[in-house]
Model the fold of this input.
Amino acid sequence: MLVIAKLDRLSRDAAFLLNLQAAGVRFVAADMPEANELVVGIMAVVAQAERKMISTRTKAALVAAKARGRKLGGDRGGVPTAEMQAKGSAAAKAKAMGRAADLLPVIAEIRAAGAASLQQVAEELNKRRIPTARGGMWAATQVLRVERRAEALKR
Done:
């Protein structure tokens, strides 16, 4: 017995669904547990028609966007220049230095309260629910990096 969440998610190809039924595969849809062979057949045909309508609308929207001069697709093979890479790197470094400057007073307070190791500082930052730059949990290595950046700011 195949259990599916929604009947239209099993397939939007009527022939596929009808072939499943013909092969004797039993399935039940959680959104329509009472569905019999007739209902499944009708729903399969409706789902296939819906698929065709979605495809038609999508193709028309892409043609219209292209007519407006919009470039379609993602990476078009552009390679960042050395200048672009340098600017990106500088921006990332500035962001990291700013974050270190913001965290320095908190880390100093934790150190003053008796945290001697990097791991203890990390644990206290986690207890205070202060997220890392990427929103995760603190580890000793991350604290070390923040402290090194803070030292570079002092120079």
Notes: Residues 2-68 form one domain.
